[in-house]
Prior knowledge:
alpha+beta, globular, 3-stranded antiparallel β-sheet
Amino acid sequence: MIIYHGSDVIVERPVLLKPKRTLDFGPGFYTTTNKEQAISFARKVMIRNDSQTKAVSMYEIDFERIENVLDVLKFNSPDEKWLDFVFANRQGIYSGKKYDIVYGAVADDTIYRVFGLYEAGLLTKEETLKRLKVPKLYDQVTFCSEKALSQLKFIGQLEINEEGQ
């Protein structure tokens, strides 16, 4: 499987860094199987860091094999378990099991607005889950341990033209 990491620098050797903010799946190295999502994230990182560069690193991973070797948490849709997990991580209160890899569906930017309403207590869990049933789902594959990172094989960078493609 090919996965992508969007940033403002090419990352040949990923490392686990302490995040500056709380993230959906906790601390880790975030990737996706969706090339367009990686390009979009590279654009956001470039703007956030006031950089001049969009960069997408590409990796190869044998996901079927590592599911038997590493501790993997996989969410197939934004369901109640996913919501509870993401909510706890974004609040910085997750204290459950530590996984090597967390893989799950995420939606486009509208999910963050819905999630913000849920975090503020303006939506119930049931209302939030209904609104998360969006047609355009993406994914993120988060590497949360050095053991998991060691399974990534850097295979190059994606060329991004002026239009971002």
